[in-house]
From TrEMBL:
Protein name listed in UniProt: Unnamed protein product
Superkingdom to which the source organism belongs: Eukaryota
A GO molecular-function annotation: ATP binding
InterPro entries per the UniProt record, alphabetical: DEAD/DEAH_box_helicase_dom, Hel308_SKI2-like, Helicase_ATP-bd, P-loop_NTPase
Coiled coil regions, renumbered to chain: none
Start and end residues of each Helicase ATP-binding domain: 146-336
PROSITE patterns cross-referenced by the UniProt entry: HELICASE_ATP_BIND_1
Keyword terms: ATP-binding, Helicase, Hydrolase, Nucleotide-binding
Any matching Pfam family: DEAD
Length: 452
């Protein structure tokens, strides 16, 4: 119930919150200043009563509807990534030329064009086109094992993820197929997505690479176009993928069952002799009690058939129990030989090309964190994406947060890119599960994380 200024308040059985507020004897001044109440002016009494009436819609119709996009980030980054400086400017030109010359002096066996590998020039050129111009010393030692390139021995080896273990298997598999045109190869991969990626890789590598077939009917091939076309198909290397459809879940069972079925069919049709090499990726799954039996059955059948089939197994984590007893002595000799060698730091033999400067912020005091943030921000500034692997879910969230704090603020980002990020945030907010608040803060800076 309203009343004019200076008149006592009258209550008729109840009090509203407005009446209770008017009885307060102290005032709180807001930061933006004191707002003039419309009741203090007697001329506005009628207007106040009209605007406060619940059935009145004149105010709602006249008030504009303003949609303000929420602010998503502060105006300034909290931390700044450490600078990465090149050391080439601090090295004299003569020393830099000498160091460059020494860096490019490799053993001839570290090049795929070395005659000891016996690879065709077309295959070497295809490897060079994808950036594989030289190999590591350990890869060369694997390939140059006596009898391995000829397919007379099996190979089981382990190397870290991203260390280049697939290249060794690819070279051995392709060399076996090129030198034996009637033979086939099977490459077993753990997931359907890897099969699709490997298909593209192998098809690019074997492009214009021909098998070694004797051209006895060259004169007839030059006369008959059909025969010439058929001869070309015989020389070409075809790469085919056997996996489930696009809607099939990419699990170990799909790829293992497909490979095992191919071998079973070849045995039933008496065509197992056409198989020349079998490559098994993620060989450590032999120890798995749920999924390892398929690999074990497949390898056991190949070994018991006593066919001329080469087996190549590789894994990033391989236990000693998987190695056959015949090769255990060589394995232990290798470990002893490595243990007896003197350890040489890579910093003494490989001078750095760029140096990450010390951090200026307490959050980057850890050298690993400082390098991670500096490299991630530097890669993003160059227009590329960076992928950071973390040891736990909590570390994934923390590292994403600290990288996002060093990324450019939204005001410095291209408007189109910022609009795409905000649209993505809107889509994630509309999901039934909602949006993680940490992901909401990092995503607008161009940093996302996945903890599952």
């Amino acid at each position: 119930m309203s009343a004019r200024s200076g008149q006592p308040f009258q209550f008729h059985g109840f009090q509203t919150t407005i009446d209770v507020a008017r009885q307060q004897n102290h005032d709180v001044a807001p930061l933006a200043g004191q707002k003039r109440l419309p009741d203090h002016n007697p001329d506005n009494a009628h207007k106040v009563s009209v605007l406060s009436h619940p059935t009145s819609t004149s105010h709602l119709s006249s008030r504009p509807v303003d949609f303000v996009r929420p602010s998503v980030a502060p105006l300034k980054s909290r931390i700044t990534a450490s600078e990465i400086r090149s050391v080439a400017a601090s090295i004299p030109e003569k020393e830099r030329e000498t160091a460059t010359t020494e860096d490019h002096v490799y053993d001839p066996c570290q090049y795929l064009k070395d005659p000891r590998y016996g690879l065709s020039p077309a295959l070497v050129a295809n490897f060079a086109s994808v950036g594989v111009k030289s190999i590591y010393p350990w890869q060369a030692s694997c390939l140059l094992v006596p009898g391995l390139l000829e397919g007379k021995k099996h190979l089981v080896y382990t190397a870290p993820t991203g260390g280049g273990k697939s290249l060794v298997a690819d070279v051995l598999m392709l060399k076996r197929i090129i030198e034996n045109p009637s033979r086939k190869a099977i490459l077993v991969l753990p997931y359907v997505a890897l099969v699709q990626e490997k298909l593209k890789w192998l098809r690019r590598i074997v492009q214009d690479v021909e098998k070694r077939i004797d051209d006895i009917d060259d004169q007839a091939a030059g006369v008959e176009p059909y025969h010439q076309r058929w001869k070309k198909l015989q020389k070409s290397i075809r790469v085919t993928g056997f996996f489930g459809g696009s809607r099939t879940t990419a699990t170990w069972a799909d790829t293992d069952i497909a490979a095992n079925s191919l071998i079973n069919t070849a045995i039933e049709e008496c065509n197992i002799g056409d198989l020349g090499v079998v490559v098994l990726d993620e060989l450590h799954m032999l120890d798995d009690e749920h999924r390892g039996y398929l690999l074990e059955l497949m390898v056991t059948k190949i070994l018991l058939l006593q066919q001329d089939i080469q087996i190549i197994g590789m894994s990033a984590t391989l236990s000693n129990a998987i190695y056959p007893a015949a090769t255990s002595r060589q394995l232990f000799q290798t470990i002893t030989r490595l243990a007896s060698m003197s350890t040489v730091s890579l910093t003494d033999t490989m001078p750095p090309h760029r140096i990450i400067q010390p951090p200026a912020f307490r959050e980057l005091a850890n050298p690993t964190t400082n390098a991670m943030v500096a490299l991630s921000v530097d890669t993003a500034a160059a227009g590329y994406g960076a992928l950071v692997f973390c040891g736990s879910r909590q570390a994934c969230q923390l590292h994403a947060s600290i990288i996002s704090e060093a990324m450019p603020v939204p005001a410095a980002v291209d408007p189109e890119e910022l609009s795409r990020r905000l649209d993505l945030l809107a889509e994630l907010r509309s999901l039934p599960s909602g949006l993680d608040p940490v992901l909401e803060n990092t995503l607008v800076r161009g940093v996302g994380f996945h903890r599952e």
